[in-house]
Amino acid sequence: MTPRRMIKIASRSLPLCALLLASCGGSTTGGTPGTAGTGAGTAGTSGGTAGTTGNAGTSGTGTAGTTGNAGTTGSAGSVGTGTAGTTGTTGSAGTTGGGATGGSATTGSAGTTGTAGSSGSAGTTGTAGTTGSAGRGGTTGTAGTTGSAGRGGNTTTGTAGTGGSSSTGTGGQVACAPPTVTLPSGNDAVAGTRIQFNDNGGWCWYQDERAVVDTKTNKLIIASQASGGSRSSQNDVVIYNLATGGTPMRTTLPSSLGTGTVDDHNSPALLIRPDGNYVAQWAGHRSDCISRFSIFNGTTWSAEQKVDWTPWGCPWAGASTNMVTYANPWYLGSSIYTMVRSVGTDPGVLTSTNDGQSWSYYGRLMDTVQTGYVAGYFKYWGNNTDRIDFVGTEAHPRDSDTSLYHGYISGGKVYNSTGTVMDDSLMDANATTTTSVNINKYTAAFKTGATVKGVKLCRMWNHDIVRYADGTIAILGQGRADNCTGTPADSDPDKRTIYMRFDGTSWKTTYLVKSGPKLYPDEQDYTGLSALDPDDPHTIYVSTIYDPRDDTTKSTKREIWRGTTCDNGATFSWTQVTARSTADNIRPIVPKWDSSHTALLWLNGSYTSAQNYALKVVGLIGPKN
Predict the structure, then answer these.
(1) 3-state secondary structure (DSSP) of residue 439
(2) Measured distance CA(250)–CA(93) in Å, rounded
(3) Cα–Cα distance for residue pair 91/365, rounded to 1 Å
(4) What is the pLDDT of residue 529?
(5) Which terminus of the chain faces fewer neighbouring Cβ atoms within 10 Å, N or C?
(6) Which residues of 582-619 are buried (b: 16+ CB within 10 A; e: fewer)?
(7) Spatial distance between the Cα atoms of 79 and 177, rounded to a whole number of angstroms
């Protein structure tokens, strides 16, 4: 189950205002010294008032009007775009002392220049992030107001407050703030215009990507499986024109899976080829040994292509149902690598060197001993260039006290979080000989029994993973706050959603919210799930009945909440995306798009089991802000 990613406000510095400087003097005729002008120029926006005329003396020089006082200091620039203060008006010069008989005429001294208003303080600098594009910068400081005019001299303009710098930060974001949202009144309120992409569709969360954005043709492509009705068990791919909107075009994948095999685990994963065609991959839920593929040429899907795992040991020892499940295709260089739960219920890898037209067995990603149902659950994220990251468990949380472990594939090898080689050859000679190791040898993103926000968590499960452009990695997942030693059949453990972040050195965890009750009786750990935005490390989405602002207030249905972090995941502020819903909103995802746009998708309706649901595929399309 994978979901994914909104908000950017660019910062800039205001230019410094121009510096203006001038002075002007008065003159007298001879006689006794003239009395000094008494009136000093008044400070302020209207400029200093001229000093009054000095009285005539008999022989001395008339004294000039007194010097204008300095303009007041411009106030500090606050965070946000600064507006320059206005310039105070120039104070007038002192007038000339009156002439007196017989004295030499000497010039009265000029009023001195009023001191400039001081600069507004700079806006605070955004917190630096790790390597990469400019990130969570402080917004531009407001300009300092201009200094008032000095009495008797010209004013200099107060210097504008310097803008807050956009320091390097996470994922290329230049600003960070939660959105301002006003939800409409009444039931089924949504923060935006909700689009229905499919009237009957569902997905599990262990096949990725379930939706992709084709940026060359401006299309959104979404895969799902129908349950009930005339299309029951049918795998659909919807193509939506992002430029023109309108009615989504629904296409049907050719599939040899039986019409009675409804299961959201059968839903396809999608990949865009370099030539612009699409690859879809899917498999039954432990129902046979076949991985299935089809290619879309822009008009139609090709006939179903089958890859049979029987020569590689399917069904594998332990149970007659130890057959293949899931699909996770990503590019590494010019080849596609797809991870499938297969060999010994570990992830096995198929590869294609011709963009999905033919496939061969490549190797085994893990060699974890099966505990109970399977040997772990894995989520993947790739850049479709040179790396695929993963987060995995040792088993189903129902069967074992699981942790969350991270590693990545690159250059034919498999590494832990810090770059230590754990498997020096992903490629194996055959399915029974492997250099892979147990998942528990990889870096623990969250070790069972660890405490976060005073809550000890166990039996962990993974929701989503993204590696951002700057190299930081985020994981969303869940753990139980009780029922750590076992899973009674009728239990409903207290599940909590958490956020994990790798900064290049270590993993740090943030508590998010209570996940709410189980979705249905047979799966004690099924929740509404959560999603990362792959283009915006500030943004996550969570489905829960609890209000994450207090972790106490409950809604009657599962709602979608948007979390915004401006401190690298240490804290989140929350905005409600759906409210007062009459049906559940679950399993959000955000396909990768670009830094300016987001497609938030989720399932709306009722979920009785993985084989029986009445869900619509819905979502919001728009700019990140």
Answers:
(1) helix
(2) 81
(3) 80
(4) 98
(5) C
(6) ebbbbbbbbbbbeeebbbbbbbbbebebbebbebbbbb
(7) 12
Instruction: At 274, list the tokens.
Output: 């370099």
DSSP letter string over 99-133?
Answer: P-TT----BPPPBPPPPPPPPPPPPPPPPP-SSSS
Q: Is 484 exposed, middle or buried (0-12, 13-18, 19+ CB in 10 A)?
A: middle
Determine phi and psi for 546, rounding to 5 degrees: -95, 145
- How many domains, in total, are found in the chain? 1
Question: What mean pLDDT comes out for the span 519-528?
Answer: 97
Q: Which of 221, 208, 200 is nearest to 277 (CA)?
A: 221
| Tokens standing for residue 130 | 């790790």
Residue listed under structure tokens 């001879």: 30
Q: What is the structure's pLDDT at 318? A: 94
Tell whether 80 is covered by a domain: no
CATH code for the domain in which residue 550 is found: 2.130.10.150
| pLDDT score at 317 | 96
**Nearest partner of 40 among 125, 111, 141, 132, judged by Cα:** 111
Q: Is residue 5 part of a domain?
A: no
> β-strand 421-423 against 413-416: which pairing, if any?
antiparallel
Report if residue 426 sits inside a domain: yes
Q: Would you say 556 and 545 are in contact if contact means Cβ atoms under 8 Å apart?
A: yes
How far is residue 428's CA from residue 159's CA, in Å, rounded to a whole number?
67
Does 135 reside within a domain?
no
CA–CA separation, 376 and 396 (whole Å): 6
67 touches 91 (CB < 8 A) = no
Query: CA–CA separation, 423 vs 385, rounded Å?
Result: 20
Per-residue model confidence as pLDDT tens digits over 252-279: 999 999 878 899 999 999 999 999 999 9
Question: What does the DSSP 8-state code read for residue 397?
Answer: T
Query: Which structural domain range is residue 338 located in?
Result: 198-623
CA proximity to 216, closest of 243, 244, 185: 243
The closest of 188, 217, 160, 25 to 106, measured between CA atoms, is 25
Residues 6+ apart with CB under 8 A from 223: 203, 210, 211, 235, 236, 237, 238, 267, 268, 269, 270, 280
SS3 277: coil
CA distance 295 to 247: 23
- Distance from C-alpha of 312 to C-alpha of 38, rounded to nearest angstrom: 104
Its pTM stands at: 0.74
